[in-house]
Specification:
Blueprint lengths: L13 E5 L8 E6 L10 E3 L3 H6 L7 E6 L2 E11 L2
Parallel strand pairs: 2-3
Antiparallel strand pairs: 1-2, 1-5, 4-5
Length: 82
């Protein structure tokens, strides 16, 4: 666990992201253990490419992520414990 778990993305956190689609609202996802992953409910397994890209990021961090539709620039806007 990180020292400042309220602002650093870790397993068990929810994460708000912007950037999946231009002008779209934030997406809220949950990073969970792989056995609890349910993509339809936006619960992403910790071994997934998106979770791996997010772990350790902080609120305000921007990063590139490759989706099936192409590369997107995502921003972490909030994170916390459920």
């Amino acid at each position: 666990m990180h020292e400042n778990s309220d602002s650093v993305v870790d397993v068990g956190n929810w994460v708000n992201l912007t950037g999946f689609e231009p002008g779209a609202e934030e997406e809220k996802i949950y990073i969970v253990d792989d056995a609890a992953a349910q993509p339809a409910e936006l619960k992403v397994g910790k071994s997934s490419p998106l979770a791996q890209a997010l772990l350790g990021k902080q609120v305000g961090d921007e990063f590139s992520f490759q989706t099936p539709a192409g590369n997107v620039q995502l921003t972490v806007t909030a994170t916390g414990q459920p």
